[in-house]
Amino acid sequence: MNIKAVFFDLDGTLFTSTRTVAATTRRAIVELHKNKTLVGVATGRGPAFVLPLMETLGLDFAVTYNGQYIFTPDAILSTSPIDKKTLRDIIDFSRKHGRDVSLGMADGVHGSGLVKFGETRTAQVIAGLLPQKMSGLTKNGFQNIVRKIKPQSKNLVDNIRQPVYQVIMVATSDETDEIMINFPELQATRSNAYSADLITKGNSKLKGIEKVGLKFGFDLSQVMAFGDSDNDLEMLSGVGLGVGMGNATPAVKKVASYITDNNNSDGIAKALSHFGLINFKHAASFISKDDQFNKVKEFHRVMDGKTQEMPRVFLPEEAAHRADFKVEEIVEFLFAASNANVPVFDELTQNLHEAIDKAADKVKSKPIPERENALTGEVDALLDLLYFTYGSFVLMGIDPYAIFNAVHQANMGKIFPDGQPHFDPETHKIMKPDNWETDFAPEAKIEAELERQIRVAMSKLSQAKDEK
User: Fold this and answer.
1) Percent of the chain with pLDDT over 90
2) What pLDDT does residue 241 have?
3) Which range has highest mean pLDDT (63-72, 94-103, 126-135, 362-371)?
4) What does the pLDDT average to over 120-128?
5) At what angle do helices 23-34 and 291-304 cross, to 10 degrees?
6) Cα separations in angstroms, 329 against 74, 198, 323
7) Confidence band (pLDDT; 50, 70, 90) for 234?
8) E strand residue ranges, 28-150
């Protein structure tokens, strides 16, 4: 089967029960991208919730609010806000019948504290521990406890001045059918037993995926989708390959083309491996909680053909090569600080030579710790370098996150037309292909990001002055 794009539902699918993304899933997404397969999510959650996930996982696109709001890292592809009159009718209905509702907007979900609590990790854990038949009792318990702490917002009408893409209403499945009689222009979809997502008729996760396909050049038959809840039914039955999680509802398992393991047992990676989209190996490579580290590790896996999985020391020659790389960057840092003034730069590099000699004398004069081995010493020094580097960014007032990603993308572009990296025989540094400067060099992105950060900082300063 020619799969060009893979889509994941979030809760119960991409997320484990503790609302994290399994290490095997992260590796699977990296491998999918390596194999030129597009990756996205299709969820009832909103863009504000998905955006951080899109950045950390490198997703290509997101179908959010059940197809009402579709975007990529660079652009909004499609939006379908609910009309204002319908929103006023829903708010009036919720007040008359004591129904908690929240409004899904681009910047988040606003309204009911009950709905917000229901979306938290704590509520998800509680829900997972309770039998499905207790959903009504659980809903009432949430209402009685949470409403006292976070009552329903009284200014929902004011909120609808901004576009609203989805309404979340607390209601059981039986109650939802009766409620929807009042809103024939809407349709309800459910991802849990406690609330319903109300969206405009004609939209859905599947319709959203279809819209993405028109933009990126694939059709539904070339899509593989993963899901676990009843709001995934149309998506799983409408794509080329619908995969139900082992923890999916009976209805999902009935329509899915394939049932994989559950979301806590590497279900996504196992299914992708089963259909030949990735190579799945249990614990073949550890994944750090530091996503920046994981990106650099992927760079070395691509360029070196392997990664180091067992802690080890750098031998003297290897350590010298790594130090050479760092010194070159320090010298470039000083050249930038001198503003290309050669006499100033010469003075700074002379000071650097003296600092190295001074540091060497200091290290040699210290007694060697009895318990410290070479591995501990190397790691301690490297962590101090990392800490000092972050400290430099702090003192510059620079957030390095987006800039790091730009540099990472540029480094991943150091592949030659033969599909392999090339290394300098003397320095052992990875060489740049002829098209690298025009297609991958990060300087323009770095400059644009710095300009953005300056604008944000200036805006905050201006606001602070106005408040005074």
Assistant:
1) 56
2) 97
3) 63-72
4) 46
5) 40
6) 30, 54, 10
7) very high
8) 38-42, 61-64, 69-71, 76-79, 101-105, 108-111
State the Cα–Cα distance between residues 247 and 107, nearest whole angstrom: 30
d(CA 168, CA 201): 15
* pLDDT of res. 221: 96
Average pLDDT over residues 444-451: 94
The residue among 156, 78, 80 whose CA lies nearest residue 112 is 156
- Give residues with Cβ within 8 angstroms of 256, minimum separation 6: 227, 236, 242, 243, 244, 248
CA end-to-end distance (rounded Å), the chain? 63
Angle at 148 between CA 147 and CA 150, to 5 degrees: 60
**Predicted pLDDT at 154:** 57
CB 204 within 8 A of CB 234: yes
Unique residue bearing structure tokens 């953005």: 452
Angle 124-239-119 from CA coordinates, rounded to 5° = 15
- Taking only the tens place, the pLDDT of each residue in 336-357 is 999 999 999 999 999 999 999 9
Provide the pLDDT confidence category of residue 123 given band limits of 50, 70 and 90: very low
pLDDT band of 465, cuts 50, 70, 90 = confident
Q: The tokens 């150091």 sit on which residue? A: 414
The two structure tokens encoding residue 198: 């109300």
* Residue pointed to by tokens 């559950």: 262
Q: Are 352 and 330 in contact (CB under 8 A)?
A: yes
Separation CA 287–CA 299 (nearest Å) = 14
Name 291's Cβ contacts closer than 8 Å, sequence gap at least 6.
Answer: 56
Instruction: Report the alpha-carbon distance of residue 293 to residue 296 in Å, rounded.
Output: 5
Locus of tokens 């917002």: 153
Nearest CA to 266 among 256, 278, 255?
278
Give Cβ neighbours of residue 171 (< 8 Å, ≥ 6 apart).
Answer: 99, 179, 195, 196
Owner of token pair 């008359």: 96
DSSP 315: P
Handedness of CA 287, 53, 229, 243 (dihedral sign): negative
* Nearest by Cα to 292 from 398, 411, 379, 376: 411
Burial 170-202 (b: 16+ CB within 10 A, else e): bbbeebbeebbeebeebbbbbbbbbbbbbbbee
Six-digit token string for 400: 């390095």
Q: Is the pLDDT of residue 39 over 60?
A: yes
Dist. CA 250–CA 264, nearest whole Å: 18
What's the mean per-residue pLDDT of the chain?
A: 86
Residue of 38, 104, 123 whose CA lies nearest to 73: 38
Q: Residue 310's pLDDT band (boundaries 50, 70, 90)?
A: confident
Instruction: Say how far apart CA 287 and CA 20 lie, in whole Å.
Output: 13
d(C-alpha 32, C-alpha 12), whole Å = 21
